[in-house]
């Protein structure tokens, strides 16, 4: 089965497996990074549902940011997801970088979320 998966899919599955093994029941902060936008969501894997989400494509963010593909935009999305999580009563999560290197926009989103009050 592993031969049928592409390299990126195998990397993503390996990271997801590691995140779930070390989560100890915590919720997962998942990141998706496209060439033009960045998305973050907090997922409860036990129930299989998304509890809160934030992205650079939302209308207030589109109007205030020059582009969604910058480190500054990712930092703001990290702060926004942290604020929404705190409002929902979530303070501890496990960070799922989704196969991306912990560098640039992914790192900026994580730092913004930590700055906003999330701990991981």
Provide a brief overview of the structure.
With 120 residues, this protein is α+β, with helices and mostly antiparallel strands. It contains 4 helices and 4 strands, in the order αβββααβα. It has a single domain (2-116), classed as Nucleotidyltransferase, domain 5.
- End-to-end separation in angstroms reads 32 Å
Q: What is the tally of beta strands? A: 4
Largest sheet at a glance? 4 strands, mixed
How many domain units?
1
Strand order of the largest sheet: 3-2-1-4
Query: Which class best fits the helix and strand makeup?
Result: alpha+beta
In CATH terms, what is the architecture?
A: 2-Layer Sandwich
General form:
globular
- What do we call the CATH topology? Nucleotidyltransferase, domain 5
Structure description:
The protein is an alpha+beta fold. It has one domain: Nucleotidyltransferase, domain 5, CATH 3.30.420. The protein is about 45% helix and about 20% strand. It is built from 4 helices and 4 strands, in the order H-E-E-E-H-H-E-H. A 4-stranded mixed β-sheet has the order 3-2-1-4, sandwiched between helices. The longest helix has 17 residues, at about 5-25. The chain starts with 6 loop residues before the first helix and ends with a helix.
